[in-house]
Specification:
heterodimer; A: mainly beta; six-stranded mixed beta sheet; four-stranded antiparallel beta sheet; 12 strands; about 0% helix; globular; B: mainly beta; about 45% strand
Amino acid sequence: GNSVTQMEGPVTLSEEAFLTINCTYTATGYPSLFWYVQYPGEGLQLLLKATKADDKGSNKGFEATYRKETTSFHLEKGSVQVSDSAVYFCALSLPGANSKLTFGKGITLSVRP
Amino acid sequence: EAGVAQSPRYKIIEKRQSVAFWCNPISGHATLYWYQQILGQGPKLLIQFQNNGVVDDSQLPKDRFSAERLKGVDSTLKIQPAKLEDSAVYLCASSFLGGLGQETQYFGPGTRLLVL
């Protein structure tokens, strides 16, 4: 079946540190890949997405590249801020009538000043 | 543009009681999803509607959970009777069309349910 695996957390970084959050997937077919973020007290919101191999999604300084050969979609940011503290979810969906999102477990990022 | 609305935000009930959650998607969005998010896990789809028809309810525990979207707009998810393991956050999401696999889903704030 389809699944998403995220690295174990939580992750604690100092402000301006480099961030990498690993995500790998298993899917039948050609999925679209997403990163969703959940800030404290708020709902899930889309951070970025990529819909085909080698696409790079980017938003708010975050980037992730769809790597079909390694079935990965790692999230990176060059310099994190305290305001990036949140829970980050990697997810996939497949084309078709059933366009549900399959999520990873999520990882909590805490950025200290 | 108003986002996805959900109510209530919090609910505490005892096991074997019933509870209902309400969701109003973004105006014009044809597809509505209900997800269950258990603490420490990612959200898991319970049911997906396209307009007022069910697309996928394979993960919905139908002996106790039910959902409807009568007029193709807002939706209600019900649990009757509740079990301890139903304690979770129930998320509603909507997308404009669905079916393409690459559309953004917009999430509501969720309803946090605690079953005692």
